[in-house]
Specification:
alpha/beta, globular, about 290 residues, binds NADPH dihydro-nicotinamide-adenine-dinucleotide phosphate
């Protein structure tokens, strides 16, 4: 067979992007499967996003990840956006079909996979409370609704961000969803099966911050999930564990959204344990 020195390329566009560890886990998976693929972590300012997508087309790149602040803006430069990503209103992954670039959103799907595989919970029929109304909360709420959750409560500080989100999820999924303004400490009532922190509270470097919630009224079967992945053991999860509650960390969501992306790009199943190990090593976690 003639030598082939041409690598398939995937990139993450973001700003700031230097601390994004996704490349480490994707490269580890490419290597484990012997694929001549490269994952580039590229700093792209908002004003150059259009050029960056044109460049990705010129390079014949096989896929993209988008992170802050490009998840919404990128949609206008793509040929198609999947129905789920359109519902969420954001794209974190782009795949290529021929010459066409198609936007997907794997954040909420990665979250669901973590809830199912790592915590053993089927979201169907479950009642979930979500802290936050940003991009992660939208993706998680939409996928929980599509997976058959019984109802959703959005708890968020600012009404301006929460109300349009609640309206969109209700219109797109028909799942009962309501909003409660977050003032002071939010008491978890026993009706909830799942509590998700989809705010950035507790994210490095503010690792001592904890979303003000009170678990004293929670059902003993409550599952507490955190989207924050750095550190994986947030103060919220530590507090939940201390009460004997089951938890699922943000690393799980991050690895699984990457697993789904890998499959969309390569058509192959990646070794998930290799990806998780590489991610932990990249974040300096044993
Ligand atoms: P956004 O900036 O879109 O949203 C942030 C949310 O956090 C808003 O609802 C905001 O509330 C709330 N918030 C921030 N600070 C406070 C505070 N001090 N008190 C109360 N609420 C606060 O961020 P994203 O949705 O993109 O990301 C949220 C988190 O999810 C981040 O930590 C991110 O790292 C993580 N994430 C994890 C992923 C994973 O794979 N594990 C994937 C994607 C995101 P308000 O509207 O009032 O400002």
């Amino acid at each position: 067979m003639p030598a082939n020195f041409r690598a398939e390329l995937v990139a993450c566009f973001g700003q700031p992007v230097a601390e994004n560890p996704t490349g480490a886990m994707q490269e580890a998976a490419f290597q484990a499967l012997g694929l001549n693929w490269r994952y580039l972590t590229v700093e792209v300012p908002p004003a150059r996003l259009r050029d960056a997508v044109v460049g990705a087309r010129a390079f014949g790149m096989s896929g993209l990840n988008l992170t802050i602040p490009h998840k919404v803006a990128v949609m206008q430069y793509l040929d198609e956006v999947s129905p789920d990503a359109a519902m969420i209103g954001a794209v974190n992954t782009v795949r290529r079909e021929g010459d066409r670039l198609i936007g997907e959103n794997t954040d909420g799907k990665g979250f669901l996979r973590g809830v199912r595989l790592d915590a053993g919970m089927d979201p169907r029929g479950k009642r979930a409370a979500i802290l936050g109304a940003g991009g992660a909360a939208r993706a998680i709420a939409t996928e929980l609704a599509l997976a058959g959750a019984a109802n959703l409560l959005i708890v968020n500080r600012s009404r301006q961000r929460a109300e349009p989100m609640v309206r969109d999820v209700a219109a797109n999924t028909k799942v009962p969803i309501r909003y409660e303004e977050w003032r002071g400490t939010w008491r978890v009532s026993p009706e909830f099966d799942l509590l998700v922190n989809a705010t950035s509270i507790g994210l490095y470097p503010n690792v001592d911050d904890m979303p003000p919630v009170d678990f004293s009224g929670a059902a003993p079967s409550l599952l507490v999930a955190d989207a924050v992945f750095n550190p994986p053991e947030t103060r919220l999860l530590a507090a939940a564990r201390a009460r004997g509650l089951q938890v699922v960390d943000g690393l799980s969501m991050l690895v699984y959204q990457g697993v789904i992306g890998f499959r969309l790009w390569t058509g192959q199943d990646p070794p998930e344990h290799v990806m998780k190990r590489a991610l932990k090593a990249a974040l300096g976690i044993s």
